[in-house]
Amino acid sequence: MVTAAYRDLFAATSAAAGALTGLLFVAMSVAAQRAVFRGPPVIRQIRASAALLAFSNTLAISLYGLVPGTNIGYPALILAVIGIAFIAAAIRSIMASRASRAQIRNQTWLIMILLLICITELAAGVVLLGNAASTTSVETIGYAVVTSLLVGIGRAWEFIGERDTGILASLGILVRPGGAPKGDGQASEHPADPASGADPAAPEDQRDGPG
């Protein structure tokens, strides 16, 4: 049974997750038209699927938590199992792809965070099935769905930006000479003009050609 205080929390998280899920679908359609990602397709697919899973996890648990008399342990347990299944499939897809070591390493952080959220929800759900009055488990699930929402925002931003925008990657850009980010499969910021065959990033004297 969810108390009134947690009902307010789940109402807020469900509203936020619903709005962000709609925005994610818009972003996915726009990103598909850009078609600038040059890395393995599985990387982009996992980024989008992970963001959708994170938002759906928050949305489903929060909505079921608002149903009167519902033991929130059931949706938490079911969503945790679904999340773990997705993580297993994501690991298998990445390992079977032609992704570089850097790309695999970047996605590992994503998978580990999602796995931690799912394990937390799974443990709290099991406790609630045995003791529906456990406020500590409900609080734990509350932290998990909020974290899932934040992770979904980060993964959606990474999906739109076409490169890793995590904390470690951002710190790497700051300490790297020149501050230039390493390529993660994204296209160049200065694509060549197919009509002229010239590279806009090249000096003017090289673009003009001889004479």
Keywords:
single chain; mainly alpha; globular
Would you write up a description of this structure?
The chain has 211 residues and is mainly α. The protein has one domain (4-175). 72% of the residues lie in helices and 0% in strands. Helix 2 packs parallel to helix 4, helix 2 packs antiparallel against helix 5 (135-161) and helix 3 packs antiparallel against helix 4. The longest helix is centred in the first third of the chain and has 31 residues, at 4-34. The relative contact order is 0.15.
Short description:
By secondary structure, this protein is mostly helical.
Write the layout of secondary structure elements.
Elements: H1 4-34, H2 41-66, H3 73-96, H4 101-130, H5 135-161, H6 167-175, H7 204-208
How many DSSP E strands? 0
Helix content: over 70%
Which spans have pLDDT < 50 for at least 5 consecutive residues? 179-196, 203-207
In N-to-C order, the SSE pattern is HHHHHHH
Radius of gyration: 21 Å
Distance between the termini: 81 Å
